[in-house]
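Recall that a protein's primary structure is simply its ordered list of amino acids. Everything else, from secondary elements to tertiary packing, is in principle encoded there. The following example makes that idea concrete.
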Amino acid sequence: MRRNTPQEKKQLSLQKDRRNSYGENDKASRKAIPAAKARVNRANRRADTVALTESLGAPDEDVAAASEDAVEGRRRKVWRKWPDEPLGKMLARRTDNDEQRPFDPSWRNPY
């Protein structure tokens, strides 16, 4: 097996390494992802409960069938994770933004 040159290693790193481009702290995902999943599941359970409460009381097949159709026919809420962005793509976008930013000579560093 042949060793990679430093240039090849850098290219692989830019393709495979990922960075959080969502806009929040990368550590926040530890709490945000489970919270989002729980929120969606809670909303789905709540909607099912509301649809099924109509069928409470004396047994009536028409009402039971209608509430079952309401539960099964309802579009469920879904939450999906976004994949992190490849490092090379993120750096390319950052350099594009730097090139598009006009130079403002009136701005001076006060220090």
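The chain has a mean pLDDT of 84. Residues 15 and 86 are 6 Å apart (CA to CA).
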